[in-house]
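Input.
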Amino acid sequence: MQPPVSIAEYLDELAGELRFDPHLARRVRREVEDHLLDAIADGAGTSPKEAARLAIARFGEPQLIARQYAPLSLLQQARRVGGILILTIAAILVLMKGRGALYEFLQWQFNADWLGGLGAVAPAIDRYAFQVSLVLGVLGWLYIASRRAAPTLNSDYQHQLTRCLLLSAAAVGLLIGAVILDTILGAARSVRAGMSLAAVIPLLSIAIEVALVSIIAVELRKVMRRKALVLSLFVDSNPNY
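Output.
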């Protein structure tokens, strides 16, 4: 690869290597640009082009710079997803409890016969799926919160990140299942009670649950893709990555 011949090319290449974290890429690009411009301004006795070349050479290869940021960036993203997952579970728990209290107040009884064989076991499956999701979510968050960023993205550090993301993925999968069952059970109650203005409240709370699980699923997928991107960027050029 030809070395960058201008600051703009160097910054573009650096931002490209940091594309696993767009916010970080923008911040580092601004900081490096400021340092390079200051170095050029201080390069008395040299042409601007030569001063730029020397400043870029002192900073080093963009890929090596990106490698220094990758371990901490992935850890922070995994922690962020773990925190969002815990908040999502807590919000859904509040919505479920509130909806249950509303059903009792309105005396909307659930008719298990409406769902056939599923009606007898669906409430229990829904409850246990949510409880296991909560346990896995908390375990994943505690695990990643106890990790420290490694200086390099070595195999041990990759395994730590993978464990956290797998726990989060399992929690999200069970949470999605619980929300789907909750939607079915809620629809069964609403149909039995008949459509009315009161039915809008539980349906709205279910819609919020669906939106919440969609958000956490998207965020988790982003982190998994960015982890894979980091590995694809660095694994071929260094066996320790």
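The CA atoms of residues 186 and 203 lie 8 Å apart.
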